[in-house]
Amino acid sequence: MDKIKDLKNIHGSDYAMVHERVKAFCKTYENGQILTEIVKDEQGHVIFKAHAVVDGLIRGTGHAHELEGSSNINDTSHYEACETSAVGRCLAFLGYSPDGSLASFEEIQNAQLQQSQIGIHKLTLDVATTYISHVFRLAIDEENEEQIAECQKDMRGNDPLRSAVNATLSDEQKEFLIERQKQMTADRKAKSEQKTADNKARAVEFAEKQKNSEAK
């Protein structure tokens, strides 16, 4: 087995880069193959499986998972990053891991980047929650329909933000929103029923006009 020479240091620990593992594998096994396939691809999630094949036999297998948008590189290249990680783990199981870790340098680096992104997202969520909850609670207390609707629009599609803001509401404010929603539902139903009745009335009126016209 060819020795991996180029290692990268992260916080005092050495990690092999995937391309160095691949280089060492190909140098050891001239007829070796590295095969990859996507085993899951849905809703931004992708899972790759990689096989290291020697003389027709699978000698190592590795899997990796990435989520689109979970880090800067995964905004545009989560397939490539996932495939690279799977290959790195596959070769690590085959023994190409002089650093003693199954994770490659790229995996560790990406994990650190994702962790920093999580911190940024949490800080952004905390700031947004503080601002919107203040405005939202004030709007509820003042029964300011326009402001309530605006706050709800800002939270639409963002479940973590909506949950965080709702957790700051008092029982009375929550009850107000429940009753408000019931009233809005009743108003929409009444409006729909009135529209249906108006359409029927116009249809009857039109039919009468047509009938009178034909009678002449």
How many DSSP helices? 6
The helix content is 55-70%
Terminal Cα separation, in Å? 103 Å
Count of individual beta strands: 5
Query: What is the radius of gyration?
Result: 31 Å
Q: How many domains in all?
A: 2
Do you know the CATH topology of the largest domain?
Double Stranded RNA Binding Domain
**Average pLDDT, to the nearest integer?**
78
Strand order, biggest sheet? 3-4-5
Strand content: 15-25%
**What is the CATH-assigned architecture of the largest domain?**
2-Layer Sandwich
Following the backbone from N to C, one meets helices and strands in this order, namely: EEHEEEHHHHH
Q: What does it look like?
A:
This protein is α+β, with helices and mostly antiparallel strands and 216 residues long. It has 2 domains: 7-117, Double Stranded RNA Binding Domain, CATH 3.30.160; 118-201, no CATH class. The protein has 6 helices and 5 strands, in the order ββαβββααααα. The longest helix has 45 residues, at 171-215. The radius of gyration is 31 Å and the shape is elongated. Mean pLDDT is 78; it is low at 6-14.
Which terms summarize this structure?
216 residues, alpha+beta, 2 domains, 3-stranded antiparallel sheet, 59% helix
